[in-house]
Amino acid sequence: MSAQFLLLIAGSAIAAALTGCALPSSSSISDSYGPQPNLPEPTKSLLPTVNIAPAKGWPAGAMPTPAAGLKVQAFARGLEHPRWLHVLPNGDVLVAETDAPPKPDDSKGLKGKIAKLVMKRAGSSHPSANRISLLRDTNGDGVADQKSVFLKNLNSPFGMALAGNMLYVANTDALMRFP
């Protein structure tokens, strides 16, 4: 094994030991909201505690359990890292398919390797589609039966807003406007 690899393993073990020690709260969840929430004091540590939920889809055939009288179904499938939805006045849905923009300098060294592992766990380990897709339900059954690229060649788009006849898109490096 190379010295660099051993250093990476040792650094990862130390980081895990220092950051993975967060204790669960002893308070009830209802204590944490309302007009006078009872919040715990912040804990101090050498490294920040980072708890990242792994990104994973629903198991085949599984769905969330809705409230009585409601129904849940997938509106669309096969999207590449959907991050933001905007429903247009006619019922069409715009979805920003995006991931973090490339940061070549951030992928160097131990910090970069750990960041890559963290991003992969969060489902962010592939190139960004950098587009906004339009989803349309033409027959009113609650499932998009048409999908088309609405805007492409964006730079990690996220937020969208429609003001009059103009669509505003927040790229990672600019605010864009489209008629």
Describe the protein's architecture and organization.
The protein is of the alpha+beta class. It has a domain at 77-179: Thrombin, subunit H (Beta Barrel), CATH 2.40.10. 17% of the residues lie in helices and 20% in strands. The chain contains two helices and seven strands; from the N terminus they run H-E-E-H-E-E-E-E-E. It has helices at residues 3-19, 109-121, and strands spanning 82-87, 93-97, 131-136, 146-151, 160-163, 166-170, 175-178. The protein has a four-stranded antiparallel sheet with strand order 1-2-3-4, with no helix packed on it. The chain has a three-stranded antiparallel sheet with strand order 5-6-7, with no helix packed on it. A hairpin with a 2-residue loop joins strand 5 and strand 6. The longest helix has 17 residues, at 3-19. The chain is globular and about 50 Å long. The N and C termini lie far apart (57 Å). The model is unreliable at 17-21 (pLDDT under 50).
The tally of strands reads 7
The profile of the biggest β sheet is: 4 strands, antiparallel
Mean pLDDT: 82
Instruction: Enumerate how many helices there are, as a single number.
Output: 2
Q: What sequence of helices (H) and strands (E) makes up the elements?
A: HEEHEEEEE
Gyration radius over CA: 21 Å
Oligomer: single chain
Helix content: 10-25%
Tell me the structural class: alpha+beta
How far is the first residue's CA from the last residue's CA? 57 Å
